[in-house]
UniProtKB/TrEMBL annotation:
NCBIfam families the UniProt entry points to: PPR
Descriptive protein name: Pentatricopeptide repeat-containing protein
PANTHER family associated with the record: EXPRESSED PROTEIN, PENTATRICOPEPTIDE REPEAT-CONTAINING PROTEIN PPR5 HOMOLOG, CHLOROPLASTIC
Species: Rhynchospora tenuis
Keywords: Repeat, Transit peptide
Comp. bias regions, Low complexity: 465-478
UniProt cross-references to InterPro entries, sorted A to Z: PPR5-like (IPR044179), PPR_rpt (IPR002885), TPR-like_helical_dom_sf (IPR011990)
Length: 498
């Protein structure tokens, strides 16, 4: 049984001792240099400033190179060839970083091939680890595996960082079950290789992945395996374990991990707070959720947009519209600028609460902001509000309106959402016109599209009678505003929140 004294989430970090940089002498000097005074702190910082200046200069060069490739004016290889005297490995690393943000994984491979032809190129694990990571983020698992084999052919011996990148690459694939099995296979292989033993990063990657898959048993196994090793868990480790428990509604186990985390002197960060807020919100333990939010506001950490998104969504699912609107107001008071995800959370919240007109107001304001195109996910959120509240005709009307005005570009997910909703509502007339619209837009349905449609047809008879009704209000939800405020007791402990 885990126990801990009173938890104070705002305890400060322990200060780290500073080490003084030693002066560097040039090698090969003929005579000994005259005695000099020890370098002052001002001079020791000059080296750091020089490194920063070099990094800034490299970033400028990279921006200039990428600017010349915009619009298809020149290929990245031709630009590199014209600047071959300037480009070095550091520039290539920065190019990998920038191109990974722009979906330019093909260009990354072209740069890699170009690097291999340069005199200064020396194959090392850092280059391959970076490229494998880039390929993984873009879902190019096969290319990541090819790079791994290329690395071995070049005589490089894989280390822990390379395997970490390879595991992450597999976890980005669509087949999560297969990806998790592959990741565990690499994990076991790393244990058997001397220079590839799993480190804290390896465990944190796997813990997060299995937490997102809601595989609590595997999370517990990994956590125990880490405790039996020489590796000390950090805040990311504890966050991963708590997230697994929270997603499965195991609040007591989550709280026990939090107590343990504090007892080992590990300070919670904003992800810890967000994990707690989301877990309590999912279980509609709103008194605890609100107390954690208050504790976050008093701590040195600051709320993030996901903090507010969790609260808005969970209040909406509980049909506590006024509570959700207060969160939106609090977000505005604190000076946070809403993102398109924020607007989608608000739309869905009004949808859960049956406030279709309010959702329509939010969506109209989104259109009136002058954005050239609204995010397709925002359009889907508004369409879902119409469909779940029994007004499929309004949903189809909105679809036609955005296509005519060009304010949004529907994709296959949009049509899939509407197709399922129209079949559940037994609206064959809307299904027919939707199929014609799909054909006009060039949307070709896949196998999964029709499987979901068949599932919807199977339940349409049960849903048809309720198609014109709003989602009924849940009577099992308790409004936490009616409960007395004070220190929240979690797991029998007074945590001092509020």
């Amino acid at each position: 049984m885990l126990s801990s004294p009173h938890l104070r989430l705002s305890s400060p970090f322990f200060p780290y001792p500073r080490t003084k940089a030693q002066p560097i002498r040039a090698e090969g000097s003929v005579s000994a240099p005259p005695p000099q005074k020890p370098r002052t702190k001002k001079k020791s910082l000059a080296g750091k400033g020089g490194d920063a200046a070099a990094a800034a200069e490299a970033a400028v060069v990279v921006r200039q190179l990428l600017r010349r490739t915009q619009g298809g004016k020149e290929t990245i290889v031709s630009v590199l060839n014209k600047n071959v005297r300037v480009i070095r490995q550091d520039h290539c690393f920065l190019l990998f970083e920038e191109l990974s943000k722009r979906d330019g994984w093909v260009q990354c491979l072209e740069i890699f091939r170009w690097m291999q032809r340069q005199r200064w190129y020396v194959a090392d694990n850092g280059i391959f680890s970076k490229l494998i990571s880039v390929m993984g983020k873009k879902g190019q698992v096969r290319m990541a595996m090819w790079l791994f084999s290329q690395m071995r052919n070049c005589g490089c011996r894989p280390d822990t960082s390379v395997y970490n990148s390879l595991i992450t690459a597999h976890l980005h694939s669509r087949d999560k079950t297969k990806a998790l099995a592959k990741a565990l296979g690499y994990f076991e292989k790393m244990k058997a290789i001397e220079r590839c033993h799993p480190n804290i990063v390896t465990y944190n990657i796997l813990l997060r992945a299995f937490a997102q898959a809601s595989d609590v048993k595997q999370v517990e196994t990994l956590f125990k395996d880490m405790e039996d090793s020489v590796i000390t868990p950090d805040v990311y480790t504890y966050n991963g374990v708590m997230d697994a428990y929270g997603k499965n509604g195991m609040l007591r186990e989550m709280e026990a991990v939090l107590v343990r985390m504090k007892s080992y002197g590990c300070k919670p960060d904003v992800i810890t707070f967000n994990t707690l807020i989301d877990a309590y919100g999912r279980k509609q333990a709103f008194d605890k959720m609100e107390q954690v939010f208050k504790s976050l506001l008093r701590s040195k950490e600051s709320p993030t947009l996901p903090t507010f998104h969790c609260m808005i969504t969970n209040y909406g699912k509980a049909r506590l519209r006024e509570k959700a609107e207060l969160v939106v107001q609090k977000m505005d008071d604190l000076g946070y600028r809403p993102s398109y995800v924020t607007h989608e959370c608000i739309l869905m919240m009004y949808g859960y609460c049956g406030s279709v007109s309010k959702a329509q107001e939010v969506f109209d304001k989104l259109l009136a902001k002058g954005n050239k195109e609204v995010q397709v996910s925002s359009l889907n959120a508004m369409l879902d509000v119409y469909c779940t509240n029994g007004v499929p005709s309004e949903a189809y009307g909105l679809l036609e309106d955005v296509i005519r005005k060009g304010t949004a570009v529907p994709n296959s997910s949009t049509y899939k959402l509407l197709y399922k909703a129209f079949t559940k509502a037994a609206r064959k007339d809307l299904v027919d016109v939707l199929l014609k619209k799909m054909d006009q837009q060039g949307i070709v349905p896949n196998k999964r599209f029709f499987l979901d449609a068949l599932e919807a047809y199977g339940s349409s008879s049960a849903m048809a009678s309720d198609s014109s009704k709003v989602v009924p209000k849940s009577s099992s939800v308790k409004d936490s505003s009616k409960k007395p405020r004070g220190s929240a007791k979690i797991g029998g402990l007074n945590w001092g929140w509020g």
